[in-house]
Design brief:
By secondary structure, the chain is mainly alpha-helical. The chain has two domains: 2-94, no CATH class; 113-163, no CATH class. It has eight helices and two strands; from the N terminus they run αααααααββα. Bound molecules: zinc ion (ZN) (2 copies). Residues 140, 142-143, 145, 154, 156-157, 159 line the site of one zinc ion (ZN). One zinc ion (ZN) binds next to loops.
Amino acid sequence: MLFAATSPATTDSSSAFSGVTNFFDSSYFSAFVKLMILFAVALYAAMVFWTWKDARRRIDDPVIVGVCVATAVCFPFVGVLIYLILRPPEYLADVHERELEIRAMERRLGADSTCPYCRNPAEASFLSCPHCGTKLKQACRRCKAPLDPTWRLCPYCETVATTLPQQPERPRRGAGQRTTTEA
Ligand SMILES: [Zn+2]
Ligand SMILES: [Zn+2]
């Protein structure tokens, strides 16, 4: 109403509708519409640019990046919304970093995860290689847990590890002789 009051066309102030009509016909309204159109165009251009920037960081294939940008260009505002729904959830840099971390982790565990003789995968809990039959670890005497050859005692039951094979028990000659002489 402020605009209507100040506009030059407000000669008949008795009708409420004429004020509204005059407002829509006024130069203020057309300037307002132009401003809104300019704002919408700027927003549309920014959205297309953002889509291109974001797609490049998430998608490796330039053709798919082009399709995303084309969608944003052809369907103003809705295209960006579609892109937001369908875009990959991760940045390429994050995916690459994670792959490097996994590879480093595999390298750290490499000593235990493969058989040192046949290079087939062997888990840390394996006593022997299931592929070539090589003895990989000694089982604990008491709890049968797989022990590393460098360990001095079992970390699970604290039994002292025996890396050397146990000597077979010989029958004591003295005791045997005593029993025969006594009999
Ligand atoms: Zn093996
Ligand atoms: Zn044990």
